[in-house]
Amino acid sequence: MPGSFSVYTFRGTGLIGDLYGVSSERRLVEELRMHLAWRWFTGLGFDQEIPHPSTFSKNRHGRLQESNLFQELFEQIVGQCIRVGLVKGEHLSVDGSLVQANANSDSRIPREQLAEVAQLKRTVRQYLTELEEENGDGDELPVQEQDKVSTTDPDATYASKGKGLATLGYYDNYLIDNPSCVMVGVQATAARFSQESVAAREMITRFHQRQRRYPQSLAADTSYGNGELLHWLQQREITPYMRVKQNAQRKNDRYGIEKFTYDEEANRYLCPAGKTLTYVDVNALNRTHVYAATLKRCRDCPPKTQCTKGRCRFLGVHIHEAARQRAQELARTPAFVAAQRARRKVEALFAELKNQIGLRRLRLRRMRFVREQFYLAATVQNLKRLVRLLSLKPTEAAAVTA
Asked: Which pLDDT band, with edges at 50, 70 and 90, does 370 fall under?
């Protein structure tokens, strides 16, 4: 019965499934019938009836729906890793990976048709109700808002990462301790590049709340190197080891901002040829202060072809340009090279997640249940590293935690 299915059993069964790559709850129940050790680990007595597979779903959507059961479990294991000295939490890396949703691309329909489909489909009806409760009159739309929505999993986002084909999915974001390769933060987000930086801030904030300190450094790829995140890290004295993300206009311009001289008193820039670029306005889209020359100044300028492809030169200066410049200076240091080398460990963790734990495609639907899966999988990955450390000899364990 669902009521007799304890929280301990629910949590333990989920851990066993991910440890051995058993993604089907029906198959997991069959394995529980055969393995006495699995029964013991999940708290089931030898004479106790094995729960029906539907019990998992009933508990997940019932009494455990509003709990943070798997987040608490994840953080308990991270705490143990810190207490035994496996995790120092000084030098961290962050990255995200696209995990395919439990829905097909064919299930997407135009957003205007959702109200009509909601009359027949409970998932869509529930989704629209939640949107109304969260957004009131609907002026504020969710991040993952798209022209088409999946009727199977409305929270899933149609996107791609890298050179892969577009698919419905979510981003699984990891914040890891570089030396130990232990995850100290996990975040499920919509599959949007913009959400990676948001997830990084939230995971670091959560780490600070629990540990009462910030890491010394954070390594990431170029997609995280935006001015807002770099400024946020600088405010917290976290050294950013990531390349600065350039906007499209800077790629078209041949002279970088470093070749221009800023006149603070007049709030203007001078180009290498001595031409003046006066202040125009703020570009709210990419959050830059815009400075511009004129056609007359640029037309007969000898080095114009070396400066820009345009008719005259525009200069976009990010509102957090100081943080961007600092990150660019760090990118030329040996410490940056070492941090980027350590960052590649995140990719190994995502490979383990998909190849060994079997989470290439999600089993559950909707963001809150996807979050549960991500926390559970990360807990299993951390447990493996914790058990390995505890099984080592003292001299070997000292080498790992050094």
From this structure: very high
What's the longest Cα–Cα distance across the chain?
92
Task: Give the chain's domains with CATH numbers.
Answer: 2-67 (no CATH), 70-101+163-243+331-401 (3.30.420.10), 105-155 (no CATH), 248-319 (no CATH)
According to the model, what pLDDT value does residue 140 have? Answer: 43
Which of 185, 221, 209 has the alpha carbon at shortest distance from 331? Answer: 221
Tell me how far apart the alpha carbons of residues 28 and 309 are, in angstroms, rounded to a whole number. 62
- Of 218, 223, 181, the C-alpha closest to 203 is 218
**Each residue's pLDDT tens digit, 305-315:** 888 888 889 99
Q: Specify the pairing of strand 167-177 against strand 91-100.
A: antiparallel
pLDDT tens figures, 160-218: 877 778 899 999 999 999 999 999 999 999 999 889 999 999 999 999 999 999 999 99
Nearest to 322 by CA among 224, 197, 241, 234: 234
pTM for this one? Answer: 0.80
- Assess whether pLDDT exceeds 70 at residue 112: yes
